[in-house]
Design brief:
Strand content: 25-35%
Low-confidence stretches: 1-30
Distance between the termini: 65 Å
Structural class: mainly beta
Bound molecules: copper (II) ion
Length: 436
């Protein structure tokens, strides 16, 4: 039976800081998500022994060096020539030659010493989003530290006393630096894992960009009209396929450092539970089932599910404008317009002109319509049944029996009779349904 005090305490936790301080000051520390006493002295966590390492599609994990029991890491802030998908490259800012930066991975109780070298043309800092640490390590320029000038290297050092899905990004000229790609994921494994063992643990950073077709510099001042939407800064068809063995227990962690938009990430063929935020794990009794997880700006969400359904399963942001690539934006609306004769009249002025969109915009990606150099067509890429009509924040989860690695197994071979196809007029007539 819960006591009255327990009930008051849990109510206070739900209601936030004000209630907390009035009703349960002594329990405040208990609300931190940790399986480890804050002052515990433990050995550095070892990959494979203490945790199953995460996989960041299209990206890597930051290496560390062990020095006197401290995990030493090095991030170099610099300009990066980044490919969003075959056909589109841009000058972005990132870390260690890539954007987003490498995923930081460690274990609750680890002590980290992270050196940050600035090779940008302006100052920077790194803020460790959601990580509980001393105020002076929080990386807010002007408030908790001096900015790191070009050419300087700063040292950050702190002990991890929580676990969960965190992020890192600058807190200096945020609009420019985050808008140009300076961000990364920061995964902290529990010292004593609870719950079912996770077989595959995928990490995604969600972000959005404005890159005018034909240009090669993202515009960080854009506030509304983003035209490149990315998983780990790649747009489909540039996103890695996600591979899982039938029956695997899969975790997916999403962080969102887009300038303006939340992203509802939808997975086909499976149901998952939302198991964590950037404040830590959600108790099993409070997890709820979903097929779409909304990842707000400046937040992380972790979901878990059993990959119990063989096939090729789309995973994408459900905002339809976020499944588009550059050339699909800002078009005139010609739906239902009688465009007969327009092409003939315009051809003498613009030889490559072709009116499009009067019957809908499906198929525009595969028309091979001419696009400016260094830009992506409206959407998609070739699939096993024709053209896949989605681009941007889109990828495919491939669930197969007997898979052992992460190599793309190719397209799913559907059992006979299990693929939707055209119905015959006879069949429709027999059922009394009107045929076209
Ligand atoms: Cu979205």
């Amino acid at each position: 039976m819960p006591t009255r005090r327990d009930i008051l305490t849990s109510t206070a936790v739900l209601a936030g800081g004000a209630m907390l301080s009035r009703l349960a000051p002594a329990r405040a520390a208990d609300t931190m998500p940790t399986t480890l006493p804050i002052d515990a002295d433990v050995d550095p966590g070892v990959p494979g022994r203490d945790y199953t390492p995460v996989v960041t599609p299209n990206n890597v994990t930051l290496p560390y060096k062990l020095v006197d029991g401290v995990k030493v890491m090095h991030l170099i802030a610099e300009e990066v020539d980044h490919e969003f998908a075959p056909g589109l490259r841009a000058k972005c800012w990132g870390y260690n030659g890539r954007t987003p930066g490498p995923t930081i991975e460690a274990v609750e109780g680890d002590r980290l010493r992270i050196f940050v070298t600035n090779r940008l043309p302006e100052p920077t800092t790194i803020h460790w989003h959601g990580v509980l640490l001393p105020s002076g390590m929080d990386g807010v320029s002007g408030l908790t530290q001096k900015p790191i000038a070009p050419g300087e290297t700063f040292r950050y050092e702190f002990t991890l006393r929580q676990h969960g899905t965190q992020m890192y990004h600058p807190h200096f000229d945020e609009m420019t630096q985050v808008g140009l790609g300076m961000m990364g994921m920061f995964i902290i494994h529990p010292r004593r894992p609870e719950g079912p063992r996770i077989d595959r643990d995928f990490v995604f950073m969600l972000s959005e960009w404005r890159i005018r077709p034909g240009t090669s510099r993202p515009d960080p001042t854009e506030m509304t009209d983003f035209n490149v939407l990315t998983f780990n800064h790649r747009a489909y068809p540039g996103t890695d396929a996600l591979v899982a063995r039938l029956g695997d227990r899969v975790r997916m962690r999403f962080g969102n450092l887009s300038a303006m938009d939340h992203h509802p990430i939808h997975l086909h063929g499976h149901r998952f539970k939302i198991v964590g935020t950037d404040a830590g794990p959600i108790p099993a009794s409070a997890q709820w089932p979903e097929v779409t997880v909304l990842v707000p700006v400046g937040s992380t969400r972790a979901v878990e599910f059993s990959a119990d359904n063989s096939g090729d399963w789309a995973m994408h942001c459900h905002m339809v404008h976020h499944m588009m690539n550059q050339m699909g934006h800002g078009l005139p609306n010609l739906l239902g317009v009688n465009t007969a004769g327009i092409d003939d009249k315009i051809a003498p002025l613009l030889p490559s002109y072709m009116t499009m969109g009067e019957t809908g915009m499906g198929g525009m990606g595969e028309m091979g319509m001419s696009v400016p150099r260094n830009s992506l067509p409206m959407r998609g890429g070739p699939g096993p049944f024709g053209y896949i009509d989605m681009g941007g924040m889109f990828t495919v989860l491939k669930v197969r029996d007997g898979i052992t690695g992460y190599d793309d197994p190719g397209w799913y071979k559907h059992p006979d009779g299990s693929v939707a196809g055209p119905a015959s007029v006879d069949e429709l007539k027999t059922l009394g349904l009107s045929a076209p």
